[in-house]
């Protein structure tokens, strides 16, 4: 077989793999029967907590995945906290990072599940928010990494090759979005909004990866642990950066009492593996006490980046 024919065959194979990857991923994302039992239980829990009085504590997680998945992940933990503390919780889904931050700042939320960059951005404007705990990753660490990923057959193996590319991002305030991607590209001598690159928001980590599989993006910035789930579909890590402080349960100190915050923190710290087994993967591995000083590294990175 000639070299030109071989190259064409490789290109055709890569396209087939990309299409198959897209179809499989779309099936995983869109299958309405997936998690049916867990979702039904979650919906029942929401009905119970929403029906309580205005004293219910309002909670929202970052929209890293679709709402159905978020409910399956977080409502079992909220149910545990209700049983353990006697407090009542009300689920709120807010589809944008900025909306969650504004809701905390304007006292429309009491608790939120936040990544490090959203917390730092909020804390810069609002000193009355505080992290209660950091949730552990599956490796037992209270920190995580972000990754720049591509589609393996495309042959992008270094951040230095990221020029004239379409870059998929999660959301503007996402740690693994413009912030982490800018850090990775800067140390490689490239720029997110330069070198002919164009960036696009995909809204979530899953959607950013899906965009790469579909061919809408050449590369994307996502959480490393999420990227690894899609390795079998051809997603590969071009570069990674971190560690950054783990995701945290952040409290609004204007609307919560010290006793409430202490009770929630202690209940989470005391949760056993058996009690956590029904929780979503972001919280299932336990937690450690969080402090505002844990985020000083993020603050230094922001100073080095300037306007990104």
Notes on the protein architecture:
With 308 residues, the chain is of the alpha/beta class. It has two domains: 36-140 and 245-305, Periplasmic binding protein-like II (D-Maltodextrin-Binding Protein, domain 2, 3-Layer(aba) Sandwich); 144-243, 3-Layer(aba) Sandwich (D-Maltodextrin-Binding Protein, domain 2), CATH 3.40.190.10. It has eleven helices and eleven strands. The strands form two sheets. The protein has a six-stranded mixed beta sheet with strand order 2-1-3-10-4-11, with helices on both faces. Strand 6 (166-169), helix 6 and strand 7 form a beta-alpha-beta unit. Mean pLDDT is 86; it is low at 1-13 and 22-54.
Short description:
The protein has 308 residues and is of the alpha/beta class. The protein has helices at 3-30, 36-50, 67-85, 97-105, 116-125, 175-187, 205-214, 224-228, 258-270, 273-276, 296-305; strands at 57-61, 89-91, 111-114, 129-135, 143-151, 166-169, 198-201, 219-223, 235-245, 248-252, 287-289.
